[in-house]
Automatic annotation (TrEMBL):
Source organism per UniProt: Reyranella soli
Lineage: superkingdom: Bacteria
The entry's keywords: Signal
Disordered: annotated span: 221-248
Top-level taxonomy: Bacteria, Pseudomonadati, Pseudomonadota, Alphaproteobacteria, Hyphomicrobiales
Signal sequence residues: 1-23
Protein name: Lipoprotein
Length: 248
């Protein structure tokens, strides 16, 4: 979960996490888990021993974007008000329940879950998770409901073997996740170094929209959330066989 706020983000010293170090392995273990006793990272999540997902008569969508995605995979997902159900293997269902009643849910417990995508090649559900003042996303394995937590809804690479997830705003700071989708569960690498091309300021933020140039390069577009950032500094991340590198 991101705990960086604006003041800390502006003063942060970015450290680059390279390769599959012991520390990175520990972080991965903190990112991926199965629901236990009806909870996972504050979300109400339960694996049920019953099949999904017959349409529910009279069920009303709570969000039109969510309704559009659910309607594309009616055999895999269903929505009943605050309850999202996802089909798992072996005739099981992952039940995810929102906690968005202001009278009943304190800020720490507030969660809304919206199905953002079903990735058939990777056999993953992508769920956008709204928090009280922030957000994140879950990559949920169809196999058993094992869930990997990332900073935001990821953008797939052209081949579908990788994805990138980015948060870049004044409230939460900057968090960039590179996701290797070749395994189950996905492996997540945190990139904390910022580009320093040309006259880029050390306090600059990444532009908020990652765009894959090809399967080995990601460009960041849009308007920086940090006032005063130079709009034309180069923000291109190259992914090779080794550690990711910013290209100038």
């Amino acid at each position: 979960m991101r705990v960086i706020r604006a003041a800390a983000a502006l003063a942060a010293v970015f450290v680059f996490f390279a390769g599959a170090s012991h520390a990175q392995t520990e972080k991965q273990n903190e990112r991926t888990a199965l629901p236990s006793k009806g909870l996972l990272w504050g979300s109400k999540m339960t694996v049920e021993a019953q099949p999904c997902c017959a349409p529910i008569p009279g069920a009303k969508p709570v969000d039109q974007s969510d309704a559009a995605v659910v309607s594309k995979v009616p055999d895999r997902a269903s929505r009943d008000g605050p309850i999202l159900r996802l089909k798992l293997q072996d005739g099981r269902t992952l039940k995810i329940t929102d906690c968005n009643d202001q009278a009943a849910c304190e800020a720490e417990r507030f969660r809304v879950h919206r199905l953002a995508a079903w990735w058939p090649t990777q056999r993953l559900y992508v769920v956008n998770v709204g928090l009280y003042e922030d957000g994140m996303a879950y990559l949920i394995s169809e196999r058993d409901g094992r869930t990997t937590r990332v900073t935001a809804v990821p953008v797939l690479s052209p081949s579908g073997r990788r994805a990138v997830a980015l948060t870049s705003n004044l409230m939460a700071g900057v968090e960039l996740n590179l996701i290797d989708l070749s395994g189950d569960p996905p492996a997540v690498l945190e990139v904390s170094e910022m580009p320093t091309c040309g006259d880029a300021d050390s306090n600059a933020f990444l532009r908020p929209r990652p765009v894959w140039v090809d399967d080995s390069q990601v460009r960041f577009e849009g308007v920086s959330p940090q006032p005063g950032d130079k709009p034309n500094t180069k923000q291109l991340l190259r992914l090779g066989a080794g550690s990711p590198k910013w290209e100038c």
